[in-house]
Amino acid sequence: MGNYVDNNLINGEEVAFETTYHWIIFLHLRSFLTLFIAPILARWSDEFAITNHRIIIKIGLISRRTLEMNLSKVETVNVDQSIMGRILGYGTIRIVGTGGTNEVFENISHPIDFRKKFLELSL
What is the domain count for the chain? Predict the structure, then answer.
């Protein structure tokens, strides 16, 4: 589990699913231009987790962007996958919350399992 997720769990809250970026991020131009340092840091520092109470996403090492949303406030988790994404097991997740929240995260490993776990916990 990630450090941020562990440090921000409340009483009775347990991590049900956690994922990270897919290895495909190492094949982008940004990877080559930064000598693979940027994707290594992103994969090491960014956290995507679903607990029994909420979705917790933390992006960034020095500057931080977080999304913590109660499961009851999430309307849906959409998954977009290309053909290559389906074959290799990565995709884009879009979290749509009540009040117009719309957050997009690309190149996530196991996006279908992420959505499946959300649906199991939100019932």
Answer: 1
Structure tokens at 47: 């956290």
CA distance 34 to 94: 27
- Give the Cα separation of 86 and 120 in Å (integer): 22
| CATH classification at residue 61 | 2.30.29.30
At 1 the pLDDT is 55
Instruction: Give me the domain span that covers residue 33.
Output: 3-122
Q: Which candidate, 35, 30, 2, 25, places its Cα nearest to that of 109?
A: 25
Question: Which whole number is the average pLDDT over 64-74?
Answer: 95
**97-to-27, 43, 122 alpha-carbon distances in Å:** 31, 25, 13
3-state secondary structure of 11: coil
Tokens 């997009």 belong to 104
Q: φ and ψ at 35, to 5 degrees?
A: 55, 40
**d(C-alpha 43, C-alpha 63), whole Å:** 15
